[in-house]
Amino acid sequence: MIVVTGATGKLGRFVVEGLLKKVPANQVAVAVRDPEKAKDWAARGVQVRKVDYSQPETLAGAFGKGDGVLLISANEVGKRFPQHSAVIEAAKKAGVKLLAYTSAPYADTSGIKLVGEHKATEEAIKASGLPYAFLRNGWYFENYTDNLAPALEYGVVQGSAKDGRVSAASRKDYADAAVEVLTGTGHENQVYELAGDTAFTLTEYAAEVSRQSGKKVAYVDLPVPEYSAALVKVGLPQVYADILADADAGLAKGELYNDSHTLSRLIGRSTTKLADAVGAALKAR
Which residues are in the NmrA-like domain (predicted)? Predict the structure, then answer.
């Protein structure tokens, strides 16, 4: 059995659909907080298990001996490590054959604050003694393209990335990598630094948005405190704004650049191109 936690999230849905193209539905299970959101999969024969990372008691019976498990990282920054720890403990008790985890770039060495919880999770997984696979997903195109509306409205993309290059890929690219690891062999105790094939600066991103939309959009670089303040001004909590601004500072230092092409080799195709990601986002508006 292959079990995907957090399956109804944006990444998880791509993973489950990818699995269903490769294995029978009765060999796939999803562990989700709201089973109602997974009823379409249940109708197709997927097992649906109600699980909440924050309620460890719900994890009893979520996994079985010999399962392959994908732990998709939680989205509550600052609360993720205890949530992940509960999943790790449940997986250990069950005796799963592989625990794959969606981590972050260079998790063991990165200076980006957002990565800290991922590093701690990786260390906990290693300490558990379970066979593991760390899928260190780079930045997603969607981190940028999901915010196209204000960029087009105001003609500005803001950040603190300077001329740093980010090796982004799409959610589907990363999901396909997870599917390969969960359905393939030889991935035990492997660390995969995953990223897009071609890196770009935020200036280049803004230029591509301009080219395809026909509206002038420019990248405006701000000092980290000013970028954080700008994020707060549009409604983000201060803590989260500080984390995002810090990540941009890391981008400026090269911490989100990766030219290894590990992702494209793993999925057997080129990763999504910047022009295609922008075009798809504009079409979806």
Answer: 2-253
